[in-house]
Write a structure and sequence with these properties.
The protein is an alpha/beta fold. It is built from eight helices and six strands. Helix content is 41%, strand content 13%. The structure holds uracil.
């Protein structure tokens, strides 16, 4: 690190053995979407389906994320989606602090290469690592904070919304807020191409 292109970063990540999660992974789940997007989502870590397919948010929670994106006129090809950790924690447990620490350098590099204007943390794990260690999703979801020229927001993890449908209106309203924020951004001028 630093890497000069997303491809180089992806290749480094594919052979990663920085933490114990590498022992049981099927595939590294690097990230997916538009590497020029103004909007990046950060989830927690791959689940079973993601581990098999090598793509983030392809299971039930992912289908809900797709629906929420469609509600605001987007789809996964127009945004970038990544996770705090790139390998599946066993039995979908929360990634341990040391696993997040081992992996965060890859995420930082993804952010540096993509340069999103908006970062949306999906759920507590990402929001507490990226926004603030005491972030409470139920109280602080939908609030934008500016940091290093980027706007950050935490919202409900789609899997949590599936478990607790009463969170759906709040999740929807956070996505409307994302749409509104996107409208305030200057049109992308095209970022320098990678060497
Ligand atoms: N949950 C996550 O946080 N990330 C995924 O990729 C899938 C489910």
């Amino acid at each position: 690190m630093p890497y000069s292109s997303m491809q180089e970063l992806k290749e480094a990540c594919a052979g990663c053995r920085r933490c114990g999660l590498c022992e049981e992974r099927t595939k590294v789940v690097f990230g997916v979407g538009d590497e020029q997007s103004q909007l990046m989502f950060i989830g927690e870590g791959p689940g079973e389906n993601e581990d098999i397919q090598g793509e983030p948010f392809v299971g039930r929670a992912g289908k809900l994320l797709d629906k929420l994106l469609i509600t605001i006129g987007l789809d996964r090809s127009k945004v970038y989606i990544a996770n705090m950790v790139k390998c599946r924690p066993p039995h979908n447990r929360d990634p341990l602090p040391e696993e997040q620490e081992a992996c965060i350098g890859y995420l930082r590099e993804q952010v540096r290469l993509i340069q999103p204007q908006l970062i949306v943390c999906l759920g507590r794990i990402a929001a507490q690592r990226i926004i603030s260690p005491d972030f409470k999703v139920t109280r602080q979801h939908g609030q934008w904070i500016e940091r290093k020229g980027m706007n950050l927001m935490g919202t409900f993890h789609p899997a949590a919304v599936l478990r607790n449908q009463s969170q759906m209106p709040a999740a929807l309203s956070d996505f409307i807020s994302i749409q509104e924020m996107l409208l305030t951004l200057p049109a992308p001028t095209g970022k320098p191409t990678e060497s």
